[in-house]
Each structure stands twice: as C-alpha cells, then as structure tokens.
Design a protein that fits this description.
Oligomer: single chain
Radius of gyration: 34 Å
Structural class: mainly beta
Order of helices and strands: HEEEEEEEEEEEE
Number of strands: 12
Distance between the termini: 97 Å
Shape: globular
C-alpha cells in the first residue's frame, strides 16, 4: 500500500527533473551560426561572421557581391588606336579601338560616346555628332541602350565614327580631315591621329564590345 506521505516527495522530485531538462541546451543548435542584423536608419548592420562572405548592404541587410566591382576606365587608363573602317556611297569611316596597355591587366569599363573632333586644313574644328547608328555602323536597329563594355587584356572596346563627302541636300563637297582628336568616355586625355574621314555630317557612335 502506497504511503501517502511519500507522494508529495515523489512529485517534488519529478518537478525538479523536468525543470532541469527544460534548462538543458538544445544540441541541435549550431554554435556560431551567423545572423544578418538589420539596423534602423542611421546605423550599420554587423557583417557576417563567415570568413570571405559578403557584407550586408547598410541599413537593408541585402547582400552585395564580395570583392571589388569593375570600375570605369577614367583618364589615361586605356590606349587608343584608330584605323580605317572603309567607305561606301559617299561615306568614309574610322574605327577607334580602346585597349589596355600591355603591363596593365586590371579590367575597367567604358560606357557611352568618345569625343571626336576633326581639324581641317584651315584649322577649323568640326565636332562629331553623337548618334546611335549611321550608314557604316553603330548599334543594331531597335537597340537604343548604351552598352557598358568591360575592357580587359585581349578584349578591347570599339567605336565607329563616319562622315560624308557632301552636305545633305546641298551637294556641296567636303574635304577630308587633317587630324582627328579622340577622347575616350569619362576621360580628359585626348590623342590626335591622321584619318581620311570626310568632314560633312560627322557622326560618332557608342562604344561597343569586341566581336
């Protein structure tokens, strides 16, 4: 027969064991698991504790790619070379090639239009109009988005400029360039070249990738 005085003692012991079990850490949790912390505006979240992982974007917790992104080329970063792009139906053109110098293997980007100025035999400067495409080349029809081109060793960028032998609608003939001055996008470094491009209706098209 169960001793009634023993029952409260048993219940107390069982309760103590249950409380101890509730305080025991869960072995399924992984120590050191990183947590992305999002802070209110004005603060910076803590970076992930995993070595080499991307840090969260400030005040959002959104991860950004690890490492440095490719930067714009800037002044003096790329070498410039100009060669003939042929002719046809009264048009002449030249291709501008932007490449990394041999010792430089750090990629960079070019976007938009280079600056092109043509100097004639009288010293007059003719500015090339920025257009998406022309008779000899440029962006494909229907594509009006300026591409961002990554310039890296062995993969230069290109831009085409062109002119016509006569002015539109007048038939007035135009001479050819004495010198051509080229400035890469996002740069102030200008270089001069000899080209045979006609001086009328000068156009420069956007930088595109090597094909």
């Amino acid at each position: 027969m169960l001793n009634r005085r023993f029952v409260p003692a048993v219940l107390v012991a069982v309760a103590a064991l249950a409380g101890a079990a509730a305080c025991t850490p869960d072995d399924s949790a992984t120590p050191g698991t990183p947590v992305t912390v999002v802070t209110p505006s004005g603060g910076l979240p803590a970076p992930s504790s995993v070595p080499g992982s991307a840090a969260p974007h400030p005040a959002t917790g959104t991860s950004v790619p690890a490492g440095n992104p490719v930067s714009p080329c800037g002044s003096g970063k790329v070498g410039v070379f100009v060669q003939s792009a042929g002719s046809g139906a009264g048009h002449t053109g030249a291709e501008i090639i932007f490449s990394l110098p041999a010792p430089d293997n750090i990629a960079c980007t070019l976007t938009g239009y280079p600056g092109v100025d043509i100097v004639d035999t009288t010293g007059t400067v003719h500015h090339a109009e920025r257009t998406l495409r022309g008779y000899l080349g440029g962006l494909p029809q229907g594509d009006d988005t300026l591409p961002t081109v990554v310039v890296r060793p062995g993969h230069p960028a290109h831009a085409l400029f062109e002119g016509t032998a006569a002015r539109n609608g007048s038939g007035e003939s135009c001479g050819t360039a004495k010198s051509t001055q080229v400035t890469p996008p996002d740069s102030t470094a200008t270089e001069s070249f000899s080209t045979g491009v006609y001086l009328c209706n000068l156009q420069i098209h956007p930088v595109t990738a090597d094909e």
